[in-house]
Specification:
This protein has 192 residues and is of the alpha+beta class. The strands form four sheets. Strands 1-6-7 form a three-stranded antiparallel β-sheet. Helix 1 runs antiparallel to helix 2, helix 2 crosses helix 3 and helix 2 runs antiparallel to helix 4. It starts with 5 loop residues before the first strand and ends with a helix.
């Protein structure tokens, strides 16, 4: 057992993998990279690198570090909480990046399909239907600019229906890229 006192915390890391349970991310016990504690000799998946009063550094479990340096207990708890949030956010990023990749692949598959012709039909005074295969949009004006936008919307609607028909693709897939960006922003705030 090292008699040198802990002077300050250099870093705290949670090496465990996280899994989504409901609306929370929880650690999987035994899934991390264990590091042998310089204080107790056991392996810890959540550990701190600390600087000792003799100028050396050592890796210790956060519980052992807290007991060894009670004056730093608050910093250890805050650091451990932050390390857990970082690990959970990294797991969230991996999940949503996979979802976004699945969605991009589905969109690419649909974009490679031949698009049915777009048909404009007048159904009543000032009312038109614009169809593309089984997708229909409506218009009350078919001026040049507006008609082009409605035709594009009909094609987009047809493509969205094809994506929805691909097995395994759900509504949440379309928001995957946005959720990755959001999680990265939250992670960047923690890194400051």
């Amino acid at each position: 057992m090292n008699a040198a006192a802990i002077l300050r915390i250099l870093s705290i890391k949670d090496t465990r993998e996280y899994v989504e349970q409901g609306d929370r991310w929880v650690p999987i016990p035994g899934s991390g990279e264990p590091s042998e504690c310089a204080r107790c000799g056991r392996n810890h998946e959540v550990h701190a690198t600390v600087e000792l009063d003799d100028g050396t550094t050592e890796v210790v479990g956060t519980g052992c570090a807290t007991r060894a340096a009670m004056t730093l207990a608050k910093e250890f708890r805050a650091g451990e909480s932050r390390a857990k949030r970082i690990a959970a956010l990294n797991a969230e990023i991996v999940k949503w990046a996979r979802v976004a990749d699945e969605y991009r692949a589905a969109r690419a598959k649909v974009d490679a399909m031949p698009v049915p012709p777009v048909v404009v039909a007048k159904v009543a005074d000032y009312r038109y239907t614009i169809t593309c295969g089984d997708a229909t949009v409506y218009a009350s004006d078919v001026s040049t600019f507006y008609l082009r936008e409605r035709e594009e919307q009909a094609v987009c609607s047809w493509k969205n229906k094809r994506v929805d028909e691909i097995e395994g693709i759900t509504y949440s897939h379309a928001s995957g890229a946005g959720k990755v960006a959001d999680a990265r922003k939250r992670l960047a705030k923690l890194a400051d």
